[in-house]
Amino acid sequence: MIVTDRKCASLNMEMFCKGGYISWETLVYITAEPDIKDHINSLTIVLMQETERFNKLLIIIKTSLEQLKKAIKGFVVMSEELENVYNAFLNNHVPELWARNAYPSLKSLASWVKDLIMRCCFIDNWINNGPPKSFWLSGFFFPQGFLTGTLQNFARKYNQPIDHLSFKFILLPYSREEAMEQLRTVKKGETIPMDQNPDAKGRINSLTIVLMQETERFNKLLIIIKLDVPDEGVLVHGLYMDGFAWDWDHMTVGDQLKGQMQANLPVMHMDPRLDYEPDLSLYPAPLNKTAARAGTLSTTGHSTNFVVTVHLPSSNTQDYWIAKGEALLCQISD
């Protein structure tokens, strides 16, 4: 019955939502069923909000490009705003009109467009195929909303006060970077290759192999893994380590490798805990959306750049990493 509901909702979306609007009922059918308390999964609301934000941005991009095309041909007046868009194209910069309505980014125009396509593929895959095994945290327009939704699901399930909940961060020995590229080629109704289940004989499908290129000591070791969805919390990936690296031998943070600007953080399990107090041996790494180490406080009470403090296992003291200014990033500059 759930499969039928999903197919019906997907068909409804194709027929009636071509204008960029996806109805609430469609998202409910596609992403989650109500729990025993008739609560809709909080991540469904997050998906709805993310879809609206991306739709708004895409409409602005489409409208400005159409108007710019007409202005070049002389059909409409070349306004100052359109002229700024044109000049930004010549300099490979993101137009101010787009950046003002988009997520924080320091990328050039070419990289920004590629990143936007990847984000839309991530949201589209979630809508059509259901929640992924691991969420691309960097792909969210507003990642703080996703984290709050995860805590809210846990609070509703166990009747816990959400203001007493926080995350315990568990790093897993898996890499997930291939998943972002696979999102661009997956078709509706299919899962990305690395999320496909084993065959009838219990063997992992060859497409499920995750090619994890580790440090030079591992000499491009290939590890075959199958990522399981945790009972509580979520798995996230796509984060970068600015100024330090990950020691795969000891599963702790380590010094930056020579010639490496940003290293990839492994898949991370964000496990909600009640009144959790992290161990003092863990390094509290700030997670920022961009490499800019500054942000402003928005009307929602959240920073425009800072996301959350991630406590990482370390063999060195906190002062060692704080003095070096190490941090995590959702995206690199280019």
Automatic annotation (TrEMBL):
<dbReference type="GO" id="GO:0007018">
    <property type="term" value="P:microtubule-based movement"/>
</dbReference>
<dbReference type="InterPro" id="IPR041228">
    <property type="entry name" value="Dynein_C"/>
</dbReference>
<protein>
    <submittedName>
        <fullName>Dynein axonemal heavy chain 6-like isoform X1</fullName>
    </submittedName>
</protein>
<feature type="domain" description="Dynein heavy chain C-terminal">
    <location>
        <begin position="37"/>
        <end position="178"/>
    </location>
</feature>
<dbReference type="InterPro" id="IPR043160">
    <property type="entry name" value="Dynein_C_barrel"/>
</dbReference>
<dbReference type="Pfam" id="PF18199">
    <property type="entry name" value="Dynein_C"/>
</dbReference>
<dbReference type="GO" id="GO:0051959">
    <property type="term" value="F:dynein light intermediate chain binding"/>
</dbReference>
<dbReference type="InterPro" id="IPR026983">
    <property type="entry name" value="DHC"/>
</dbReference>
<dbReference type="GO" id="GO:0045505">
    <property type="term" value="F:dynein intermediate chain binding"/>
</dbReference>
<feature type="domain" description="Dynein heavy chain C-terminal">
    <location>
        <begin position="230"/>
        <end position="330"/>
    </location>
</feature>
<dbReference type="GO" id="GO:0030286">
    <property type="term" value="C:dynein complex"/>
</dbReference>
